[in-house]
Amino acid sequence: MSGANPKFRRAARIAIVQALYQMDVANAPFKTVVREFRNHRFGYNDESDVVQVDENFFEEVIEGVVGSQNAIDTKISTLLPEKWPLRRLDLTLRSLLRASAFEIMRRPDVPALVIINEYVSIAADFFDGKEPGMVNSILDKIAKEVRASEFGLVGAAPIADTSNESGSS
């Protein structure tokens, strides 16, 4: 994450969750949603009271989630209780898990603990219940499997690259 502004990345992650939610609800193509966010929701240096985000990071994660959604959903689904499949999760929670799982699985430039802390914090901003704990548990398991070396564990099991996959909710 060298060179990245943590404040702008944090704002980008919140926007990513919102954009994925919007795509899920409206069945909107990611390019349309990304363009809407860039043109109408993100601010510029001379504007006050408008959110500034790491726009390139925002778009990279959105595009990555869309491109790897099947692999991401499969990984998340293996960690959910049988009675709570991915399709039953709150849309915001599902969007948050998809974005965070993508970062852990496909963004080795960002430390796993940073990703987990950021998304658990965002979950706490959206939810008052058990959801932040659930997010922490799921992301911790994915990170320890995918990035075992970051946790001092042996035998990392990389997840197959399915970046050309497309998925839908």
The third-level CATH topology is N-utilizing Substance Protein B Homolog, Chain A
Distance between the termini: 29 Å
Model regions low in confidence, pLDDT < 50 over at least 5 residues: 164-169
CATH class type: Mainly Alpha
**What's the pLDDT, averaged over the residues?**
89
Total number of helices: 7
Function: Involved in transcription antitermination. Required for transcription of ribosomal RNA (rRNA) genes. Binds specifically to the boxA antiterminator sequence of the ribosomal RNA (rrn) operons.
InterPro entries: NusB-like_sf, NusB_fam, NusB_RsmB_TIM44
GO molecular function, one term: RNA binding
Keywords: RNA-binding, Transcription, Transcription antitermination, Transcription regulation
Structure notes:
It is a single chain. The chain has 169 residues and is an all-alpha fold. The chain has one domain: Orthogonal Bundle (N-utilizing Substance Protein B Homolog, Chain A), CATH 1.10.940.10. It is 61% helix and 0% strand. It is built from seven helices and no strands. Helix 1 crosses helix 3, helix 2 packs antiparallel against helix 3 and helix 4 crosses helix 5. The longest helix has 21 residues. The radius of gyration is 15 Å and the shape is globular. The two termini are 29 Å apart. The C terminus is likely disordered.
